[in-house]
Amino acid sequence: MSRTIFYIFAFILIAGFAEAGNIFKVKYDYQADVKVFSCDYDYQADLIVFVCGYDYQAKGNDALWYFCDYDYQADTKVFFTQYDYQADLKIYFCKYDYQAKWNSNGNKFVGTFRGK
Protein backbone atom coordinates (compact mmCIF):
# COMPACT_ATOMS: atom_id res chain seq x y z
CA MET A 1 0.00 0.00 0.00
CA SER A 2 2.73 2.48 0.91
CA ARG A 3 4.62 1.64 -2.29
CA THR A 4 1.54 2.53 -4.36
CA ILE A 5 1.18 5.84 -2.57
CA PHE A 6 4.86 6.55 -3.19
CA TYR A 7 4.49 5.90 -6.94
CA ILE A 8 1.40 8.09 -7.17
CA PHE A 9 3.18 10.90 -5.33
CA ALA A 10 6.28 10.54 -7.54
CA PHE A 11 4.16 10.65 -10.69
CA ILE A 12 2.35 13.80 -9.58
CA LEU A 13 5.64 15.45 -8.67
CA ILE A 14 7.28 14.61 -11.99
CA ALA A 15 4.21 15.65 -13.98
CA GLY A 16 4.20 19.01 -12.20
CA PHE A 17 7.75 19.80 -13.31
CA ALA A 18 7.33 18.57 -16.89
CA GLU A 19 6.93 21.90 -18.65
CA ALA A 20 7.39 21.91 -22.38
CA GLY A 21 6.01 24.24 -25.02
CA ASN A 22 4.64 21.43 -27.15
CA ILE A 23 2.44 22.90 -29.85
CA PHE A 24 0.13 21.08 -32.24
CA LYS A 25 -1.16 22.72 -35.40
CA VAL A 26 -4.85 21.91 -35.95
CA LYS A 27 -6.78 22.03 -39.23
CA TYR A 28 -9.84 23.92 -38.02
CA ASP A 29 -10.20 27.00 -35.83
CA TYR A 30 -12.76 25.44 -33.47
CA GLN A 31 -10.19 22.77 -32.48
CA ALA A 32 -7.64 25.35 -31.34
CA ASP A 33 -6.87 26.76 -27.93
CA VAL A 34 -5.36 29.85 -29.57
CA LYS A 35 -5.72 31.28 -33.07
CA VAL A 36 -2.45 32.79 -34.31
CA PHE A 37 -1.33 34.83 -37.28
CA SER A 38 2.24 34.69 -38.57
CA CYS A 39 3.53 38.23 -39.21
CA ASP A 40 6.15 39.27 -41.75
CA TYR A 41 8.10 41.47 -39.32
CA ASP A 42 8.97 41.18 -35.64
CA TYR A 43 7.63 44.62 -34.68
CA GLN A 44 4.14 43.57 -35.83
CA ALA A 45 4.00 40.55 -33.50
CA ASP A 46 2.86 40.13 -29.92
CA LEU A 47 5.14 37.12 -29.49
CA ILE A 48 8.44 36.36 -31.22
CA VAL A 49 8.74 32.57 -31.46
CA PHE A 50 11.72 30.27 -31.94
CA VAL A 51 10.94 26.73 -33.11
CA CYS A 52 13.07 24.17 -31.26
CA GLY A 53 14.33 20.92 -32.71
CA TYR A 54 13.51 18.89 -29.59
CA ASP A 55 10.73 19.06 -27.01
CA TYR A 56 13.09 19.37 -24.03
CA GLN A 57 14.48 22.62 -25.48
CA ALA A 58 11.07 24.30 -25.23
CA LYS A 59 10.79 24.12 -21.44
CA GLY A 60 9.53 27.00 -19.34
CA ASN A 61 9.34 29.71 -21.99
CA ASP A 62 6.30 30.83 -24.00
CA ALA A 63 8.47 31.92 -26.91
CA LEU A 64 10.17 28.54 -27.44
CA TRP A 65 7.92 26.16 -29.35
CA TYR A 66 8.25 22.55 -30.37
CA PHE A 67 5.73 21.26 -32.93
CA CYS A 68 4.68 17.76 -31.90
CA ASP A 69 3.24 15.11 -34.20
CA TYR A 70 0.04 14.28 -32.33
CA ASP A 71 -2.58 16.36 -30.55
CA TYR A 72 -2.42 14.35 -27.33
CA GLN A 73 1.27 15.32 -26.96
CA ALA A 74 0.49 19.02 -27.13
CA ASP A 75 0.24 21.49 -24.30
CA THR A 76 -1.44 24.01 -26.61
CA LYS A 77 -3.27 23.57 -29.91
CA VAL A 78 -2.97 26.43 -32.40
CA PHE A 79 -4.70 27.34 -35.62
CA PHE A 80 -2.92 29.59 -38.12
CA THR A 81 -5.31 32.18 -39.54
CA GLN A 82 -5.15 33.71 -42.97
CA TYR A 83 -5.65 37.30 -41.79
CA ASP A 84 -4.40 39.14 -38.71
CA TYR A 85 -7.84 40.32 -37.59
CA GLN A 86 -8.96 36.68 -37.22
CA ALA A 87 -6.19 35.86 -34.75
CA ASP A 88 -6.08 36.00 -30.97
CA LEU A 89 -2.30 36.39 -31.10
CA LYS A 90 0.20 37.63 -33.69
CA ILE A 91 3.53 35.81 -33.83
CA TYR A 92 6.79 36.14 -35.72
CA PHE A 93 9.19 33.24 -36.26
CA CYS A 94 12.79 34.25 -35.49
CA LYS A 95 16.05 32.58 -36.51
CA TYR A 96 17.77 32.39 -33.11
CA ASP A 97 16.53 31.34 -29.68
CA TYR A 98 17.86 34.45 -27.91
CA GLN A 99 15.54 36.61 -30.04
CA ALA A 100 12.40 34.87 -28.77
CA LYS A 101 10.33 37.01 -26.38
CA TRP A 102 7.04 38.76 -25.74
CA ASN A 103 6.68 42.16 -27.43
CA SER A 104 3.57 43.11 -25.48
CA ASN A 105 3.65 42.93 -21.68
CA GLY A 106 -0.05 42.75 -20.81
CA ASN A 107 -1.09 39.93 -23.12
CA LYS A 108 -3.70 37.50 -21.82
CA PHE A 109 -1.83 34.51 -23.29
CA VAL A 110 1.29 34.90 -21.17
CA GLY A 111 2.01 31.47 -19.70
CA THR A 112 -0.24 29.61 -22.15
CA PHE A 113 2.55 27.99 -24.15
CA ARG A 114 4.82 26.94 -21.27
CA GLY A 115 3.13 23.65 -20.59
CA LYS A 116 0.76 22.29 -18.01
Report on this model:
- By secondary structure, the protein is an alpha/beta fold.
- It has one domain (19-102).
- It has one helix and seven strands.
- The protein has one helix at 2-17; strands at 22-25, 34-38, 47-51, 64-67, 76-80, 89-93, 101-102.
- It has a six-stranded parallel barrel with strand order 1-4-3-6-2-5.
- The longest helix is centred in the first third of the chain and has 16 residues, at 2-17.
- It is globular, with a radius of gyration of 16 Å.
Summed up:
The chain is an alpha/beta fold and 116 residues long.
Task: Record keyword descriptors for this entry.
single chain; 116 residues; alpha/beta; 6-stranded parallel beta barrel; globular
What share of residues are in beta strands? Answer: 25-35%
Mean pLDDT: 82
End-to-end C-alpha gap: 29 Å
Biggest sheet layout = 6 strands, parallel, barrel
Q: Order the strands across the largest sheet as they lie in space.
A: 1-4-3-6-2-5
Instruction: Tell me the overall shape.
Output: globular
- Give the ordered list of helices and strands: HEEEEEEE
Fraction of residues in helix: 10-25%
Low-confidence sequence ranges: 2-20
Compute the number of helices.
1
The structure class reads alpha/beta
Number of strands: 7
Topology record:
Blueprint: H1 2-17, E1 22-25, E2 34-38, E3 47-51, E4 64-67, E5 76-80, E6 89-93, E7 101-102
Parallel strand pairs: 1-4, 1-5, 2-5, 2-6, 3-4, 3-6
Antiparallel strand pairs: 3-7
